[in-house]
What we know:
alpha/beta, Aldehyde Dehydrogenase, Chain A, domain 1, 22 strands
Amino acid sequence: MKGYMLIAGKKVFKKEEIEIHFPYDGSLVGTIPRGDSKDVELAVESAKVGFEKMKELTAYERFRILERAARLLSKRSRKFAQLLVMEVGKTINEAMGEVGRAVNTITLSAEEAKRVLGEEVRFDAAPGVKGKVGFYRRVPLGVIGCITPFNFPLNLTCHKVAPALAAGNAVVIKPSENTSLTVIKLGELLIEAGFPPEAVNVVTGYGEEAGDALVRHPDVRMITFTGSVQTGKIIMSRGGLKKYAMELGSNAGVYIDKDQKEKLPQIAEKVARGGFALAGQVCISVQRVFVHSSLFEDFVKEVVEFTRKLKVGDPRLEETDVGPVIDKGAADRIMEWIEEAVSLGAEVVCGGKRLSDTLIEPTVVINVPREARLFRSEVFGPVIAVNGVNSLEEGIEAVNDSPYGLQAGIFTDNIKAAFKFAEEVECGGIMVNEIPTFRVDQMPYGGVKESGIGREGPKFAVEEMTEIKTICFDTTL
Ligand code: NAP
């Protein structure tokens, strides 16, 4: 497929192109134009016009267009899923799951279009004030720059674009260079559903080039970014005075309490599914598992037994459970981190082999020292680190021993332990008797510490993507 940029509803091609390859075997999937600062300039100018046109739409009209977009996407599920398989390398089952969630995210955003609300301000609650009445309203920001990662190009772009449009903004999207074709198709679909073509723009290209120009543009009022911590920090240092929403990485931890012996098989299955879904390339993948030492050996046995059943291979096949990682460079890094952990004293008890440039066996590593990158940083690959701990307190301390704080989980039947964990673990979301990988699209989602700033989930994203305007009347004059 020959990709193009979408600027004011027009397809824009360029001489210089970037190739997109199928992560499984490296074959060519398509090309996208290498957009630059001039293209970003045109896209932002278009979005400024688009914002004026968005002002003409009522809340009901925005609701209806988003509803239509959700229906169109639902009808084209299979086509979008096939493109996701080819661009991301996720399995066809994972891809169908992503499309279904994206339909839901757009539907939830449609509903929020009707709820962009303010409230009355009690001006007379201040001493000496009489006869003043008024309210505040939430108004759209204007042009929002949406920068998205490779792993969920469809649903995570919907998490930005759909609430932005629901609230009446216009957008310029810069998708990941690896997975832009899906996002181009989404942009077209939103225009087909009825949004002004100028309000939905997609500029493809390199992050350091097109992405950087979008970040620095003074007429872009907000950057909503999902990606790595490193890129997030660069963006915030370069973008200047604007709003930011930052959905960044994590090395999610889960604690298994001493009373869970009977449930270990189910917990082990959940942990393995949460660690190996999308070959571990999920921001809330289970990466660090802390098991009460009395259950350590039994848990390791269960998790290894389940992991060995997983089928690794061609993501186009229905029977495949674990597909490739995004590229050879990512696989090189993941293997290096496993080797480093082993050199520091850890032990690989399952997997650990590289099957091709991008295929890595689902891997379980035990007794991982805290100085290893496999413990400290985000591995973003099919690897789980399992360590024993002697108490709930030690479990909480271990989960918190991370620069990140996106989501965490605890398995326990002890309500006091669950509350203590929920109170003391520094994360945006705590899952009790569930893995940290659990997310539904309406919940507030986002992190603390280096996992980010702000919350997504259409209701919460609408809050981030609007600002408050206060209106006061003097009724005495
Ligand atoms: P990434 O390398 O940080 O890239 C994310 C996006 O930023 C891409 O579109 C990239 O473009 C662009 N970019 C790179 N440098 C830029 C710059 N200087 N200025 C502006 N934009 C720039 O992340 P990724 O590898 O695609 O995604 C994996 C990361 O995303 C992981 O850390 C994961 O945890 C995180 N993530 C977080 C969440 C969440 O909700 N918290 C969800 C999913 C993923 P190019 O592709 O052209 O480089």
